[in-house]
């Protein structure tokens, strides 16, 4: 199994070098303009300060830019890190919700992916415009402003069946989440639906997942203040996603959130309606909102996290690998990232790799 980190702060790209030296395999850079540094700048600096770690978007959002701009951006990074650049792309729940907008529809996401894939393959593609579809392609490739000679894999972000099927139809891999993306065998079944639709085989298909990780100290319990503070931001990021998805509908959320669901919805709906989209996602994977800390219970940690001592984490990872998962990444809160990434590398990755 491969292991990844996330880095999205322009003056902390040293974290990527730090992770590379610890043996991490890849780095995701967030595409969320109201919350993080600009991803192309972070990727460019990271590419120049590293040698082996793979670098890419986790994930690029169609609603933020045209497909040709995304293709140019990642192909430009590929000039700096040829052969170790990838593009993760998803519909963009958090990025779009913080703008007061909805994530991309799967149909529009598919169009976006087709244009990006074609351009990165050096092809001419049709781009929708006010005057109808227009043919476009990268020009002046001999000047090497961008690199499309070293193939750039596209990993399609998908938490639901339609997006997961799209990964099988168009992608080189799937980025999903645990638990909100469902069980890995179920996600891969959806991927196969898309692959069959396109008459593709899935040789070399790469499945990665964003997980919530909580590595315990000896004799530590799930109710300790450190545990709550350090896994709380990731858990609440998932709760926020579910609130967007189910909060205003008659559908029931997944069972794993039911213990806090009604209380959390009441808390959320008591906020200012005009700014609720800012308040909901403001702490996204960075810190635990002190007003939300009360929702982090041991049962919720068990439901949302791979939690335990190193041998328990390793056992859970082996099970996920047997299910077909190729890679995981996790995002600690901002002030604990160096310590958590180092601890996981030394106590889990090193043991797994012998």
Q: How many β strands by DSSP?
A: 12
Order of helices and strands: EHEHEHEHHEEEHEHEEHHHHEHEH
- Please give the count of helices: 13
Structural class, judged by helices and strands? alpha/beta
Q: Biggest sheet, open or closed, and with what strands and sense?
A: 8 strands, parallel, barrel
Q: What ranges have pLDDT less than 50 throughout 5 or more consecutive residues?
A: none
Using the CA coordinates, give the radius of gyration.
20 Å
Q: CATH superfamily name? A: Luciferase-like domain
CATH fold label: TIM Barrel
Number of structurally distinct domains = 1
Mean pLDDT: 96
* Level-1 CATH class name: Alpha Beta
The CATH architecture name reads Alpha-Beta Barrel
Proportion of strand residues? 5-15%
Helical percent range? 40-55%
Straight-line distance between termini: 13 Å
The general outline is globular
Order of strands across the biggest sheet?
1-2-3-4-7-8-9-12
Features:
single chain; 354 residues; alpha/beta; TIM Barrel; 8-stranded parallel beta barrel; two-stranded antiparallel ribbon
Give me a quick take on this structure.
This protein has 13 helices and 12 strands.
Descriptive report:
The structure is a single chain. The chain has 354 residues and is of the alpha/beta class. It has a single domain (2-212, 308-353), classed as Luciferase-like domain (TIM Barrel, Alpha-Beta Barrel), CATH 3.20.20.30. It has helices spanning 14-22, 39-48, 67-80, 93-97, 106-120, 161-170, 184-197, 225-246, 261-269, 276-281, 298-304, 310-323, 337-353; strands at residues 2-6, 26-29, 54-60, 85-89, 125-127, 134-136, 154-157, 173-177, 206-210, 212-215, 305-308, 327-329. The strands form 3 sheets. An 8-stranded parallel beta barrel has the order 1-2-3-4-7-8-9-12, surrounded by 5 helices. Strands 5-6 form a two-stranded antiparallel sheet. Helix 1 (14-22) packs parallel to helix 13, helix 6 (161-170) packs across helix 7 (184-197) and helix 12 packs across helix 13 (337-353). The longest helix has 22 residues, at 225-246. The protein is globular. It starts with a strand and ends with a helix.
